[in-house]
Structure formats: structure tokens, C-alpha cells
């Protein structure tokens, strides 16, 4: 296969993906993004292991970043999420609490990941 045909095939695939994304309702795109961020944060908190503190994926700095991004997304889009808002907020708060528990020196209430968007989580 020549390079031109590979590029043409790649453009065709990208075009099809864009069309598919255009057909997905915004609430579903936002929800999928939230679930991906939640999954990433859970892995970075070691929650996929029986003993999170022994997880090879434990990385609190990375978890902080992902949780903060999730909090921003949820706060900015809560009015569009309808019945999905409650479970997504609950998941975010659970991750914020898990972060606090995993920290050897927990942040002050209101200073934890994403709490500038959500308010203090205890």
C-alpha cells in the first residue's frame, strides 16, 4: 500500500469518526469523558488493587490533576447532565475522599483536588 493511500485511508477513518461523534448527544460525550476521568483517577489512587497503597499505579500527583479536571468538567456541565449529575457528583466526591485517605498529609478542607470547584469534601 502506498503512502498516499494510507493517508487517504486515515483521513477516511477520521472523517467517519467525526461524523459518529457528531451524532452522539452532548450529555453522552460529557458523561463518557467524566467516566474516563473517574477511571483514571481510581487507577492513580490504586483503587484497582486489594491494597491501594501497594499499587504499582499509585500516583497522587497525577490523581490530583485528574480529579481536579473532573471537578471542573462536572461543575461546568452539571446543568446539562440531568439525571446523570447525581451519580457523577457522588463518584467525584468518593474520589476526593479516597485521595484524602491516601495522602500522608491530607490537604485542608477546601484545598483538596477539585475542591475549589466543588467546595470542601470531608
Structure in a nutshell:
This protein is mainly alpha-helical. The protein is built from 5 helices and no strands. The termini are far apart.
Query: What is the molecular shape?
Result: globular
Distance between the termini: 59 Å
Largest sheet: none
- Secondary structural class: mainly alpha
Oligomeric status of the shown chains? single chain
Mean pLDDT: 90
Q: Would you list the SSEs in sequence order as H and E?
A: HHHHH
Number of strands: 0
Uncertain residue ranges: none
Helix content: 55-70%
Radius of gyration: 18 Å
User: Tally the helices: what do you get?
Assistant: 5
Strand proportion, as a percent range, falls in: under 5%
Describe this structure in words.
The chain is an all-alpha fold and 122 residues long. It contains five helices and no strands. α2 runs parallel beside α4. The longest helix is centred in the middle third of the chain and has 22 residues.
Features:
5 helices; single chain; 69% helix; mainly alpha; 122 residues; globular
Ordered list of secondary-structure elements with their pairings:
Blueprint: H1 3-23, H2 26-44, H3 60-81, H4 85-102, H5 115-118
Amino acid at each position: 500500500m502506498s503512502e498516499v493511500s494510507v493517508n487517504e485511508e486515515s483521513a477516511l477513518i477520521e472523517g467517519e469518526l467525526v461524523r459518529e461523534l457528531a451524532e452522539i448527544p452532548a450529555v453522552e460525550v460529557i458523561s463518557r469523558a467524566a467516566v474516563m476521568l473517574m477511571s483514571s483517577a481510581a487507577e492513580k489512587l490504586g483503587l484497582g488493587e486489594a491494597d491501594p497503597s501497594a499499587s504499582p499505579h499509585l500516583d497522587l500527583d497525577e490523581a490530583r490533576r485528574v480529579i481536579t479536571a473532573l471537578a471542573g468538567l462536572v461543575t461546568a456541565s452539571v446543568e446539562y447532565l440531568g439525571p446523570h449529575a447525581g451519580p457523577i457528583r457522588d463518584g467525584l466526591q468518593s474520589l476526593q475522599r479516597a485521595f484524602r485517605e491516601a495522602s500522608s498529609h491530607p490537604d485542608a478542607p477546601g484545598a483538596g483536588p477539585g475542591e475549589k470547584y466543588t467546595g470542601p469534601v470531608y
